[in-house]
Amino acid sequence: MANTLPPTYDRNGRHPLSPKVDHDEIARFNFLTNLNVHIGQRVSPGNRTAFDNRVSPKFKQKTGRPLETRQQVRDAMKKDPFYQCWAALRRNTMEQRQQAGRHVVLRQLDDLIERAKEHNDGKETLKIDPSAEAPRYLAAVDNHCMPGSYYTEIVPDDVLAGANYETGLFVTTAGSMSSKGDGGGRSIVNFVRDRFPDFSPKRILDLGAGIGANTLPLASAYPDAEVVAVDVGAPMLRWGHARAQVLGHDNVRFIHSDGDTVDFEPNSFDWVQTTMFWHETSTSAIQSMMKKAYDLITPGGLFLNVEQPNFKPETSLFDQFTRDWDAWYNNEPFWSKLHVMDVFEVMKAAGFQSDKMFDGGTEADIERGQFQSWSSTVSRHKAEAKDSGDAKDNSYKGERWYLFGGWK
Amino acid sequence: MTDIDVNKLANAKSKGKRPYFFDDPAVERVLSITMAVATELAVTRERLDTVERLLEAGKSVTKANIDAYRPDDDASKERQQWHADYIARILRIVHQELEAVENEALNADPEKLADDFAAT
User: Fold this and answer.
1) pLDDT digit string (tens) for B51-72?
2) Is the sign of the CA dihedral B56, B62, B66, B68 positive or negative?
3) A243-292, pLDDT tens digit by residue?
């Protein structure tokens, strides 16, 4: 049986740049992590019961026909008192996590900025572009209730967004991204090594890399490769670059740009990666950035993405409603549209060939000990990916991530 | 120190219309404040647990010792179990409402039962 209790926050990975967390701040993170787990494991399942036992029958009774669309399910669920309470708790817990993480960082912001500068100033591996602007899909809404999103700077040389992201990730995902927050990147490496053992990339680009938590495992796995992390959030990059430096990754460059205008030579990367990136963009951004990715990838190179799988014909309306929830209520509106967008068609339009495209699943990789035994979590990405992996591979019974991509 | 208002910035609203799930937004406000108070009680309880464990270990109860305390594996699990038990207690009504949805037999109306019992 899976461990039903998450690790305590003091088990979370630390590095020389990590913000100081005092006793009560740790305790607050512990409570919010456990609350997240309780809501995810103990309260969430009640939504399906409410749907099956009263929401769906009531709709049929009233209208004489069954629920037919995910929008109808959402409208019907909105009136259910159990769902209302679950949703209010979930939204509130996410807001509390943001407040708690931001407070930890803000109270020592000057110190964190100074420490980051020690590792950033004068380094060729960090390039901040003061003229870069947040694209509309980021500027219009703060994704996952993160005030100021990835890009806002409240003081010069700000690192708030990056430091808060790292500090609170454990709480948001209830420790399911490993103690270093790099579970996604580790899983990608496992997938590529397993599926493409002869692939030996020399130059890797990670688009929308944020603080690079999932980029660093790629740099570790291919130590001879030059790794470039691109993001539009300067505070994420400042924090990510300094963090990479203190963790010993001096082969990773952090470049400030939106993916559209990123300035590299065509055919210059043999791997372009995105990890949980597209659902925070827009249709035109996906179209243009996949074209850009195709241009940048060298012939024979790899394009790989960790994302949400599309809804399938067999995905129930209730599951569609559940998987859309964060789109509407955790400030990630485009997610709902991505769920029904055929990304392979977009890849085709960008230049990729159908017979060189693939998708699959990979086992979530978190390290041994308390984090490994803590496998059953509230992580939405893994929960979503669970039923979507490579149908041919039935050997793995645990959590999975979904990936899709292609070779140029 | 840069002149920033830490509490104001920590409390900042994220951009995007905030959803309210209850029919009356005031209910949402009360739930939010209640959960924040519940959080702070849990923080105090964990601090008390630390004080007890320091005393048991014969250490002095100083702020520095409290901040430096790291639970061993057993203590870590015991503290997480406390949080789990505590959350189950404060969310009791949510789980009772779920039971009521799961099992219609739990929902007999006393008004009707009174009439039933009077007639039988």
Assistant:
1) 999 999 999 999 999 999 999 9
2) negative
3) 999 999 988 999 999 877 788 999 999 999 999 999 999 999 999 999 99
User: How far apart (Å, rounded) are the C-alpha atoms in residues A98 and B83?
Assistant: 20
d(CA A14, CA A196): 32
Name every chain B residue with its beta carbon within 8 A of the beta carbon of A114: none
The beta-carbon neighbor of B19 closest among A43, A81, A91 is A91
Verify whether the Cβ–Cβ distance A32 to B39 is below 8 Å: yes
Return d(Cα A182, Cα A176) in angstroms, integer: 10
To the nearest whole Å, the CA of B113 is away from the closest chain A CA by 23
Which residue's entry shows tokens 């591996």? A125
The span from the CA of A305 to the CA of A318, in Å, is 26
Distance in angstroms (rounded) separating the CA atoms of residues A318 and A324: 10
CA distance B8 to chain A (A): 9
Q: How far apart are CA A213 and CA A202, in angstroms?
A: 20
Tell me B18's DSSP state: P
The answer to whether the Cβ–Cβ distance between A32 and B10 falls below 8 Å is: no
Distance of CA A101 to the CA centre of its chain: 18
Please determine, for residue B2, whether its predicted confidence score (pLDDT) is greater than 90: no
Question: Which residue in chain B has the smallest CA separation from A47?
Answer: B98
Q: Are A280 and A381 in contact (CB under 8 A)?
A: no
Residue A224, CA distances (Å) to A204, A255, A265, A331 in order: 11, 19, 20, 39
What does R_g of chain B's alpha carbons equal in angstroms? 23
> What is the pTM (predicted TM-score) of this model?
0.93
Where do the structural domains in chain A lie, given as residue ranges? 9-169
Residue with tokens 């948001």: A172
**Does the pLDDT at position A368 exceed 70?**
no
The DSSP code for B41 is H
